[in-house]
Amino acid sequence: MKKEISIIGVPMDLGQTRRGVDMGPSAIRYAGLSERLENIGYTVRDEGDIKVEIQERAQSDSDTNLKNLQDVAEGNEKLSQKVDEVIQANRFPLVLGGDHSIAIGTLAGLAKSTENLGVIWYDAHGDLNTAETSPSGNIHGMSLAVSLGLGHPALTNIGGYSPKVKPENIVIIGARSLDQGEKELIREKGIKVYTMHEIDRMGMTKVMEESIAYLKERTNLVHLSLDLDGLDPDDAPGVGTPVMGGISYRESHLAMEMLAEANIITSAEFVEINPILDEHNKTAEVAVALIGSLLGEKLLYGAEEHITPDLLAQVK
Ligand SMILES: NC(=[NH2+])NCCC[C@H](N)C(=O)O
Ligand SMILES: [Mn+2]
Ligand SMILES: [Mn+2]
């Protein structure tokens, strides 16, 4: 894994209609992200936030039913350039949302330098809607479809090319709220999905073993797009579209630790944290803890490299 991490904040709330998710990047930083990563040996470079139009000034009047199309597209275009720049500089991009529409820009930046990007989509939802199938017109429910090349050209053409990912390079984990059109698309494209049913039945260990093996066969560049609503709302309450019966905090740690061990993740984003809906800053703290595990933090073994001297003295 690259030793230098670039944090990119994206205060985007135009991909959905609940206010507050634009404060996600601040909440995650406030929960101690940089320090946590420095403690496990990374050099952290905070690139600041991408400039996104604010909701009250956003243009909603488009000739489609897509909400805030133009401003979502603009923010994502800037994000894609920043992500590409970070990749070119050989640093690990860690993108903080913002609503999940920002995956459009992240993937557009990442896929610029590879035709074979793998994606883990950790989410209660598929985000596989198009204008035709979307029940809401919210672009955060369309970002994966857009990245497959399906949707409004103002979105699919971000970065100047399309598509960004191949359906066979995607694994969705945690799905439990899929719209009819999304289910059809999953079947049509043969996208690999582990719904909550498979997670309950097989256990997270097996789900991750299979997911890792599946992606390793296809690529050595894997992006983790983690929507906090993939977790159960009891563990991650600060999200705009919670769905009960989700992945637990512990299962999520295990999943992140297994990804760290497999050493396959080359970029990541953590999205949909809405501090207004949160309990204190719990969901951002969960995100920071998961990011720690994803990037190699261990509870005990290898502690010398990972924890503060005070804690180390207690362990020994
Ligand atoms: N990134 C998210 N939280 N997406 C939620 C999407 C909800 C619903 N499927 C829609 O398209 O409107
Ligand atoms: Mn999502
Ligand atoms: Mn979701």
Automatic annotation (TrEMBL):
InterPro entries in alphabetical order: Arginase, Ureohydrolase, Ureohydrolase_dom_sf, Ureohydrolase_Mn_BS
Gene label: argI
Matches recorded under NCBIfam families: rocF_arginase
Cofactor(s) required, per the database record: Mn(2+)
CDD domains xref list: Arginase
Keywords, sorted A to Z: Arginine metabolism, Hydrolase, Manganese, Metal-binding
Assigned EC number: 3.5.3.1
Pathway per the UniProt entry: Nitrogen metabolism; urea cycle; L-ornithine and urea from L-arginine: step 1/1
Signal sequence segment: none
A GO MF label: manganese ion binding
Name of the protein described by the UniProt record: Arginase
Example GO BP: arginine metabolic process
GO cellular component, one term: cytoplasm
Residues the record lists as binding Mn(2+): H100, D123, H125, D127, D227, D229
Family listed: Belongs to the arginase family.
Cofactor note as given: Binds 2 manganese ions per subunit.
Catalytic activity: L-arginine + H2O = urea + L-ornithine
